[in-house]
């Protein structure tokens, strides 16, 4: 367990920040941008959790999203660990295939209860679905930023972020009364 006794260290006052191995990089480094975007995605998921509440199927969804928030902390630690060896160890957090597999299983389970899409949907519907769409778009940005790290990012972390955006899309439809509350795009409707 992490124990923080002091929140500020002043070590970042010069525009650099420390990585897991003790090295320092500019706060504008692609690695730090990816870590920041993952953190922002995690915060957006927190807003969705707050919008859901904790009863019934919404409570189940909130619990699943909180597990994902823990995964995103693991992802941030993964991205903050330089090197080309992406093997996890007791001292090195890495995203692993089992985390991606769990997302896929949960996507499939939710999708079984949804009507097939007949149109693109607009972000919205319920407040919780809207928050999930914001989280989805934020995860997409985190994925793009992590990809910009080139070969310095764990391929499993990139896959996890890609699958997570799919998960959040399906979750938004799921909380929108199993898709019945989706807001459909009508092409050219405002011409």
General description of the model:
The chain has five helices and four strands, in the order ββαααβααβ. The chain has a single domain, classed as Cobalamin adenosyltransferase-like (Hypothetical Protein Ta1238, Chain: A). The longest helix has 24 residues. A hairpin with a 5-residue loop joins strand 1 and strand 2. Helices cover 54% and strands 5% of the residues.
Q: What is the structure about, briefly put?
A:
The chain is mainly α. The protein has helices spanning 30-52, 56-79, 97-111, 127-147, 155-175; strands spanning 16-18, 24-26, 121-122, 183-184.
Q: Give the biggest sheet.
A: 2 strands, antiparallel
Shape: elongated
Category by helix and strand content = mainly alpha
The count of helical stretches stands at: 5
Going by CATH, the homologous superfamily would be Cobalamin adenosyltransferase-like
Number of strands: 4
Order of helices and strands: EEHHHEHHE
Percent in helix: 40-55%
β-strand percent reads 5-15%
Taking pLDDT < 50 over at least 5 consecutive residues as the criterion, the unreliable ranges are none
Reading off the top of the CATH hierarchy, the class is best stated as: Mainly Alpha
Rg, Å, rounded:
18 Å
CATH topology (level 3) name: Hypothetical Protein Ta1238, Chain: A
Distance, first to last CA: 57 Å
Tally of individual domains = 1
CATH architecture: Up-down Bundle
Biggest sheet, strands in spatial order?
Answer: 1-2
Mean pLDDT: 89
How is the topology of this model organized?
Elements lengths: L15 E3 L5 E3 L3 H23 L3 H24 L17 H15 L9 E2 L4 H21 L7 H21 L7 E2 L7
């Amino acid at each position: 367990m992490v124990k923080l006794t002091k929140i500020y260290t002043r070590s970042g006052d010069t525009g650099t920040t420390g990585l897991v191995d003790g090295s320092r990089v500019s706060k504008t480094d692609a690695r730090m941008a990816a870590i920041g975007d993952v953190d922002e995605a995690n915060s957006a998921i927190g807003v969705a959790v707050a919008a859901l509440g904790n009863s019934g199927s919404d409570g189940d969804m909130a619990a699943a999203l909180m597990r994902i928030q823990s995964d995103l902390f693991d992802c941030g630690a993964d991205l903050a660990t330089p090197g080309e060896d992406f093997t996890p160890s007791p001292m090195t957090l890495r995203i692993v295939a089992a985390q991606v597999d769990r997302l896929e299983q949960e996507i499939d389970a939710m999708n079984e209860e949804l009507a097939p899409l007949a149109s693109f949907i607009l972000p919205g519907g319920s407040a919780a679905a809207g928050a999930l769409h914001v989280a989805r778009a934020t995860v997409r940005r985190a994925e793009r930023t992590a990809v910009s790290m080139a070969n310095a990012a764990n391929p499993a972390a990139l896959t996890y972020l890609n699958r997570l955006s799919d998960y959040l899309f399906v979750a938004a439809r799921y909380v929108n009364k199993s898709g019945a509350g989706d807001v459909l795009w009508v092409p050219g409707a405002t011409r």
